[in-house]
TrEMBL record:
<feature type="transmembrane region" description="Helical">
    <location>
        <begin position="84"/>
        <end position="103"/>
    </location>
</feature>
<comment type="similarity">
    <text>Belongs to the drug/metabolite transporter (DMT) superfamily. Small multidrug resistance (SMR) (TC 2.A.7.1) family.</text>
</comment>
<dbReference type="GO" id="GO:0005886">
    <property type="term" value="C:plasma membrane"/>
</dbReference>
<dbReference type="InterPro" id="IPR045324">
    <property type="entry name" value="Small_multidrug_res"/>
</dbReference>
<dbReference type="GO" id="GO:0022857">
    <property type="term" value="F:transmembrane transporter activity"/>
</dbReference>
<keyword id="KW-0812">Transmembrane</keyword>
<keyword id="KW-1133">Transmembrane helix</keyword>
<dbReference type="Pfam" id="PF00893">
    <property type="entry name" value="Multi_Drug_Res"/>
</dbReference>
<feature type="transmembrane region" description="Helical">
    <location>
        <begin position="33"/>
        <end position="50"/>
    </location>
</feature>
<feature type="transmembrane region" description="Helical">
    <location>
        <begin position="57"/>
        <end position="78"/>
    </location>
</feature>
<dbReference type="InterPro" id="IPR000390">
    <property type="entry name" value="Small_drug/metabolite_transptr"/>
</dbReference>
<keyword id="KW-0813">Transport</keyword>
<keyword id="KW-0472">Membrane</keyword>
<dbReference type="InterPro" id="IPR037185">
    <property type="entry name" value="EmrE-like"/>
</dbReference>
<protein>
    <submittedName>
        <fullName>Quaternary ammonium compound-resistance protein SugE</fullName>
    </submittedName>
</protein>
<keyword id="KW-1003">Cell membrane</keyword>
Length: 106
């Protein structure tokens, strides 16, 4: 169950990180409220997962999912740069997340 919490928490992190862009520095009410709710929910799920997973693994996977997802959504939705080097490094990040999962012992 802890891994499910981490995955959902990571997806929520993607949502709230993109929400930061749409909240325009917390000056728009609805995007700001949704972003804040995403932050709280993401952290709550991370804390639940950290009860049974090593904190270093849980945190790294959470951040990795969030960073990868935010970068991909930035490329797909916000028209950010998608050069080959950036995509290669995102691929390395995904490999690292999978490696942490496989070597966590849980």
């Amino acid at each position: 169950m802890a891994w499910l919490y981490i995955v959902v928490a990571g997806l929520l992190e993607v949502g709230w990180s993109i929400g930061l862009k749409y909240s325009e520095g917390f000056t728009r009410l609805v995007p700001s409220l949704l972003t804040g709710a995403g932050i709280v929910a993401s952290m709550a799920l991370l804390s639940l997962a950290a009860r049974s997973l090593p904190i270093g693994t849980a945190y790294a996977v959470w951040v990795g999912i969030g960073a990868t997802g935010a970068a991909l959504l930035g490329i797909l939705v916000l028209d950010e740069c998608a050069n080959p080097a950036r995509l290669a490094f995102l691929g390395l990040l995904v490999v690292a997340i999978i490696g942490l999962k496989l070597t966590s012992g849980h």
